[in-house]
Design a protein that fits this description.
Largest sheet of chain B: 5 strands, antiparallel
CATH superfamily of the largest domain in chain A: Winged helix-like DNA-binding domain superfamily/Winged helix DNA-binding domain
Largest interface: A-B, 21 and 25 residues
Oligomer: heterodimer
Strand order of the largest sheet of chain B: 1-2-3-4-5
Number of strands of chain A: 2
Number of strands of chain B: 5
Order of helices and strands of chain A: HHHHHEEHH
CATH class of the largest domain in chain A: Mainly Alpha
Shape of chain B: flat
Structural class of chain A: mainly alpha
Number of helices of chain A: 7
Order of helices and strands of chain B: HHHHEHHEEEHEH
Radius of gyration of chain A: 19 Å
C-alpha cells in the first residue's frame, strides 16, 4: 500500500511518460486500494486538524460536507447533532465565520428556518473535500452510535 | 457562569477568552483543594503530636504498643482496664493513612468544575465518568478488624501464653497489623483513580496534566487529559503487538508513552477539554477494533492449532511485513 503520494506516482510510474500505464487484473485492484488509502489518509488528516484548532470552524465545515446531499436539507441543528455537541451556541460563531469567509451559504427561508450549503461555486476545491468526507469520514454522531452499540453488546 | 445552587462553575473552552478564564478557575480550585488538604495534614500532625506528648509518652511502659507485641510478655500487665494499645494503634494508623490520602489528593489535579465538565461530556457520549476511591473503605474495614483484635487483647478476651500456637497467633497479628496499614496505602497509589466505564472489564483511565507554575516555555492555559485504556495484552505477545501498532497507527494514538516497566500494552490518547469527547471516542473505537481483531485472531489461532496443521508454515504465506505473525483476518482499519 502506498503511504505517500510520491511513492504512489513512483509505484505506477504515472509521471514517467515513456511507460504505459497498464491497469489490468490485480494491478487495477492495487491501484484502486492505493488511491482509496491515500484519500482515507487525507480524511484522517482533516479530522485530526479539525480537532487541533480551538475554533470549531473545520468541524462545522466537515459536518456540512457530510450532511450535504441532493435530498438533504441541512440546518444548524443538524450540524449540532452530527457533531454530537450539547449546545448550539458552541457552533454559532464558527458558522458565522464560515459564512463570512464564503465557505458556506445560508439561505434564510423564514424567521426560524434556514438551509446551509457548501459554497462549491466559489470554492471548487470543496467538491473533492465533500466527496472525501462523505465517503471516509465518520462523524462524532456515528462514532457515538458505534461506541454505544459496542457497549451494549454482550 | 456560576451555578448558584452548587457553586460549581461551568467551564467554557470554546474561545480563547473562555479557555483562559477556565484555566484560571481550574488553577484556583486546585490551589484551594491543595491548601485544604495541606491544612488537614497539619491538623492530623498536630493532633498526633499532642497525643504522643501528652497522652502516650508519659504513660509508656512495657504494656504499651509496640513493646507488648514484640516482647515475650504473655499478656499486657496493666493495673485495671486500659485501652492504650487500641487507642495508640487507632491513632497511629489513622494518622498515617490520612496523611498519605491527603498527599495523594494534592497530587490529583482534577477539580470540581473540571470533573463536572468531563462528566457532562462523557454522559453526552453515552458513558459514565466515575471516581473510584476504594482505599478509604478498605482502610476502614481492615483497621476496624485490627482495632477489634487489639481491643479483645487488651480486655483479656484473648490471652497469649508461651505455647507455639500462641506465638504463631502473635506473629500473625503483627503481620496483619502491618498489612492493614500498608495495603490501603498501596491501594491509594495503585487503584484510586478517575475512570470512564465502557463495558464489563473495559475502562479508560483519566489523568490530568497541567503546569500550575509559571513557566516561560510552557503555555499555562494548556490543560491536557491523558486517556489510558485498560490492559490489552502482554508486550511479548507479538501477534497482539502487531494488531496494537496497526490500530494505534490508523487512529493516531500516542505510542511508546506508557511505562517502560509495565509488561502490558495499553492504548493511550491525549486530549484537551475542547476535543475531549472526540479523542475519547477515538480510544473507545480503538478498543472496539482491538476486541474484534484480537479476539478473532485468537479464535483463528485456536482453530488452526486444534486442526493439527502438519507442515503448515504460516510464515511463508504471502505477507509483506516480516513482523506479521498469524494474521488470518485482515484488519478493518
Amino acid at each position: 500500500m502506498s503511504r505517500s503520494y510520491k511513492d504512489f506516482l513512483d509505484k505506477y510510474k504515472i509521471d514517467d511518460f515513456k511507460t504505459n500505464l497498464k491497469l489490468s487484473g490485480s494491478t487495477k485492484i492495487d491501484f484502486y486500494n492505493d488511491i482509496d488509502k491515500l484519500l482515507k489518509t487525507m480524511s484522517t488528516i482533516f479530522d485530526k486538524l479539525a480537532m487541533i484548532a480551538p475554533m470549531r470552524g473545520a468541524q462545522v465545515l466537515m459536518a456540512v460536507a457530510k450532511l450535504t446531499g441532493p435530498d438533504n436539507v441541512v440546518n444548524k441543528t443538524d450540524i449540532k447533532r452530527c457533531l454530537n455537541i450539547d449546545r448550539l451556541e458552541k457552533i454559532l460563531s464558527a458558522i458565522d465565520y464560515l459564512e463570512d469567509a464564503k465557505y458556506i451559504t445560508i439561505e434564510k427561508k423564514t424567521e426560524k428556518f434556514h438551509i446551509i450549503k457548501l459554497n462549491e461555486e466559489d470554492n471548487p476545491d470543496l467538491i473533492i473535500f465533500r466527496e472525501i468526507i462523505q465517503k471516509y469520514w465518520k462523524s462524532p454522531q456515528e462514532e457515538v452510535e458505534q461506541a454505544n452499540k459496542w457497549r451494549d453488546e454482550k | 457562569m456560576r451555578n448558584s445552587l452548587k457553586t460549581i462553575i461551568e467551564l467554557n473552552f470554546e474561545d480563547e477568552q473562555g479557555l483562559k478564564e477556565s484555566a484560571q478557575i481550574i488553577k484556583s480550585e486546585y490551589y484551594k483543594k491543595a491548601l485544604k488538604s495541606s491544612l488537614y495534614i497539619a491538623i492530623v500532625l498536630i493532633v498526633g503530636f499532642i497525643y504522643l506528648v501528652f497522652g502516650y509518652l508519659p504513660h509508656m511502659d512495657n504494656t504499651s504498643f509496640p513493646y507488648f507485641l514484640v516482647t515475650e510478655s504473655s499478656t499486657p500487665v496493666s493495673n485495671g482496664f486500659s485501652l492504650d494499645l487500641t487507642l495508640g494503634w487507632s491513632f497511629f494508623s489513622t494518622s498515617i493513612f490520612l496523611i498519605i490520602h491527603f498527599i495523594r489528593l494534592i497530587k490529583v489535579k482534577f477539580t470540581p468544575s473540571l470533573i463536572r465538565f468531563i462528566e457532562k461530556e462523557t454522559k453526552y457520549a453515552g458513558f459514565e465518568f466515575k471516581r473510584i476511591f476504594d482505599s478509604v473503605g478498605l482502610f476502614v474495614i481492615l483497621n476496624a478488624m485490627s482495632i477489634s483484635l487489639l481491643f479483645y487483647l487488651e480486655s483479656n478476651l484473648i490471652r497469649f501464653d508461651n505455647s507455639p500456637w500462641s506465638n504463631v497467633f502473635k506473629n500473625f497479628l503483627l503481620f496483619y497489623l502491618l498489612i492493614s496499614l500498608t495495603l490501603p496505602i498501596v491501594w491509594v497509589f495503585r487503584n484510586d483513580k478517575f475512570v470512564i466505564k465502557v463495558k464489563n472489564n473495559v475502562f479508560i483511565q483519566c489523568d490530568l496534566h497541567y503546569n500550575s507554575k509559571k513557566n516561560k516555555n510552557y503555555d499555562t492555559n494548556l490543560i491536557g487529559i491523558i486517556l489510558t485504556s485498560n490492559r490489552l495484552c502482554s508486550k511479548f505477545d507479538r501477534s497482539g503487538k502487531f494488531i496494537y501498532s496497526k490500530i494505534s497507527e490508523g487512529r493516531w494514538l500516542v505510542r511508546n508513552a506508557s511505562s517502560a516497566i509495565s509488561p502490558y500494552l495499553h492504548f493511550e490518547e491525549y486530549s484537551v477539554p475542547f476535543n475531549f469527547q472526540k479523542q475519547f471516542l477515538n480510544i473507545i473505537l480503538a478498543l472496539n477494533e482491538w476486541e474484534n481483531n484480537y479476539a478473532s485472531n485468537l479464535d483463528s489461532l485456536n482453530y488452526y492449532f486444534t486442526r493439527n496443521l502438519y507442515g503448515y508454515n504460516y510464515r511463508t504465506k504471502k505477507h509483506d511485513d516480516k513482523n506479521e505473525l498469524i494474521y488470518f483476518k485482515f484488519l478493518n482499519i
